[in-house]
Amino acid sequence: MAVGWTNDEDFGGAGATMLGDGLDGGTVSGFGGMTGGQPGMTGAEAMGMAGPVLAVFGAVSSAIGTYYQAEAQKDQLASQASSFLFKKSMSELNARRAASLAEYVQFAGAQKAGAYGIQAGQQRESLRASMAARGIQLGVGSAKETVVSFDTMKAINLMTMDANTMRAADDARTQQQNLLTQSMMEGVSASNLTMSAGTISPMGMAGTSLLGSAGAVTSAWYQNNLMNQLIARNKG
Fold first, then answer.
1. Dihedrals φ, ψ of 153, to 5°?
2. What is the pLDDT of residues 92-136, one digit of tens each?
3. In a domain, 178, yes or no
4. Is residue 101 part of a domain?
5. Which domain holds residue 172?
């Protein structure tokens, strides 16, 4: 302590020490020059203020968490919608390929049947010419049966080729329809996900969270007021 200073001068005339008023009076007092000689906040009052403050911080923290959670959910739904849109585009592309395949199968089958018909016709005429060269009378007996059998086999082969062509083309068309149906369902899923993402409002959900926490904050402030009233009565 400096020479010429008194105890009252050290503490701005308050005449109290932190040990004196802090323990005996139940207050947390500061220096007189800082507080103007008024008693500080009691430990009970400080504890009472902590409840509402913590409640407010908890409400704000919960609202922030709700906001980012809603934002993440919205982004996830948007990402899923984009994925379904991509699948829809691929299904439509594959459907167009299946349609092209059906047309190609029909074209290739017709070309193959036409080539076989020409070849079979040439073979038939060669057969008739050979029989005629050997003096076999055409149109009667075994010569007639041979030509009829040849024509019958030609017709059967052409029918088989046509049936195979139709079956392959129908398979391609069936695949096309299945892909178009799949594309439509994927488009519906993408639309539903987009609509669901549009209904999510991060700010709105954060505000709802704050409103939900308002009860806890109000209760904390109410309890703090009751405590202050009890402290005031005890001091009185």
1. -65, -35
2. 999 999 999 999 999 999 999 999 999 988 888 888 888 788 777
3. yes
4. yes
5. 57-211
